[in-house]
Design a protein that fits this description.
Shape: elongated
Order of helices and strands: HHHHEHEHHEHHEHHEEHEHE
Structural class: alpha/beta
Radius of gyration: 44 Å
Length: 299
């Protein structure tokens, strides 16, 4: 090796080193630019359209929102945890079939057994509201017992039927208790249902009187149709018309009395309801439903 060759070798190495450094700088710059661009694109895409892996995470609500979601679902979902007594009440308020309750006030009377004959002939059970002053008459008690034996219900209708004594002098509850005791004494049945003479409105507008009834576990029934039979002695056909015109609901409770004119048209009344597709029902204490003009749910 000559001297010139020895001098060229270091020179060539010195010439290659700057190019190498420039090449590294160039690669570094390209890499930095590409990485920055990729990062920006990734950030942009994530803000506009979540990737499939991101979507489930974004769908999870904040923990503070969870109680609101639960409450909203409760409001939109019908409750299935209804109290049993409430279920019965709902069912009775909206009967699926047509039902009618024939009710007769002011007995027992000399007509009681004839009413029972007509009802038996047509296979119908009824609800009687009997008055204490009549229940005390021994010659009428046979009809009272027969009514129970044949599947009818007997409720109380006060001892005196006197508006002043019952409501002004506030003897309604004591009179009803006495009447129900008489029914038990005669028939052995412990009735809890009463019908207020002249109706619970305005008679039972006093909340304290209604509270006394509730405390005594006494239920109250008024009516949906007033036949007005008590004033139609000379016009029994009008009794039928009153009932026909008043019949509008799937459940009707007919107010009638133990009157001769009512007895005359009772078969026609029964035939009318049968033709209209109604089923005849008798009051049953386990299936009591609210039917009072005061709209007092306790009664």
């Amino acid at each position: 090796m000559n001297v010139s060759q020895q001098n060229d070798t270091p020179k060539k190495k010195r010439l290659k080193r700057p190019y190498f450094i420039l090449l590294l700088l160039l690669l570094f710059s390209i890499g930095f630019f590409v990485g920055k661009t990729y990062s920006a694109e990734g950030l942009s895409s994530s803000s506009s359209e979540p990737s499939p892996m991101q979507k489930p995470v974004e769908n999870i609500k904040k923990s503070s929102d969870i109680p609101k979601i639960v409450e909203k679902r409760k409001e939109s979902t019908p409750s299935v945890d209804v109290q049993p007594e409430k279920k019965e009440l709902i069912a009775e308020e909206q009967p699926l079939k047509k039902v009618v309750y024939l009710t007769f006030d002011d007995g027992p009377s000399k007509w009681t057994e004839q009413f029972l004959e007509v009802l038996q002939e047509h296979g119908v059970k009824a609800t009687f509201f009997m008055q204490g002053s009549n229940l005390k008459k021994e010659h009428l008690q046979e009809g009272v017992n027969r009514a129970i034996q044949e599947g009818h219900y007997i409720g109380g209708h006060s001892m005196t039927h006197d508006f002043k004594k019952l409501y002004t002098e506030r003897k309604f509850v004591p009179e009803m208790i006495e009447t129900l005791d008489l029914i038990h004494e005669i028939t052995g049945q412990s009735a809890r249902l009463v019908r207020p003479p002249y109706g619970s409105a305005p008679g039972l507008k006093d909340e304290q009187m209604r509270a006394q009834l509730a405390n005594a576990n006494i239920k109250v029934w008024d009516w949906t149709i007033d036949s007005k039979d008590w004033e139609l002695a000379g016009n029994p056909s009008q009794i039928v018309r009153n009932i026909q015109e008043g019949t509008t609901s799937n459940r009707e409770i007919i107010l009638m009395h133990e009157k001769k004119q009512t007895l005359e048209v009772l078969p026609e009344i029964i035939q009318f309801f049968k033709a209209q597709g109604y089923e005849f029902m008798v009051y049953e204490e386990p299936n009591h439903f609210m039917l009072n003009f005061q709209n007092d749910a306790r009664l």
